Amino acid sequence: MGLVGLIVLRGLMAGCDVYGAFLRGAEKGLRSAASLLPALCGMLLMLAAVNASGLSYLLTQLVSPLTRLLRLPPEVAPMLLLRPLTGSGSLAALEGIFASCGADSRAGRIASVLMGSSETIFYTMTVYLGAAGVKKLPHALAVSLTAYLAGAALCGLLMP
């Protein structure tokens, strides 16, 4: 509350119409939110369809040879797939790993590192690049996913 008071006081001292500036900023924020809503709805619908159809289980089975090659425990595979898509889904997977393997297990430590060192790539790209008006996403997506997979691979190979 004190910080807001200082900002208002500073604006008044500078001769700024603080309330008008606030309203203009709120209007721009609402317009940005409205322009992002269709992309966010599409992403959430796709995620729900993937989970409801059982595709997530199939994808987990498909990546299991890769996870074995990278020395990632099989329990980490669902989180590995969910993390770029959804924060809440990957958090639920992390909790499941903790419940079944323990937080101090190798799977728990690897999952914790993956959770803390990565981002929900598709959500972040939808929100930030959508707000910036970027329409061509393939290069940014490829670089983001490559960096995520490189981090996961190093985590599996280097974590004792």
Distance between the termini: 47 Å
Structural category: mainly alpha
* Proportion of residues in helical segments: over 70%
Radius of gyration: 21 Å
Largest sheet: none
Give the number of DSSP strands: 0
Unreliable stretches (pLDDT < 50, length at least 5) are: none
Which descriptor suits the 3D outline? elongated
Oligomeric state, counting identical vs distinct chains: single chain
Averaging pLDDT over every residue, what do you get? 86
Main features:
mainly alpha, 160 residues, single chain, elongated
Write a structural description.
With 160 residues, the protein is mostly helical. Helices cover 80% and strands 0% of the residues. The protein has eight helices and no strands. It has helices at residues 2-13, 18-53, 55-69, 77-82, 87-101, 106-117, 121-131, 138-158. The longest helix is centred in the N-terminal third of the chain and has 36 residues, at 18-53. The termini are far apart.
Reconstruct the topology from this structure.
Elements: H1 2-13, H2 18-53, H3 55-69, H4 77-82, H5 87-101, H6 106-117, H7 121-131, H8 138-158
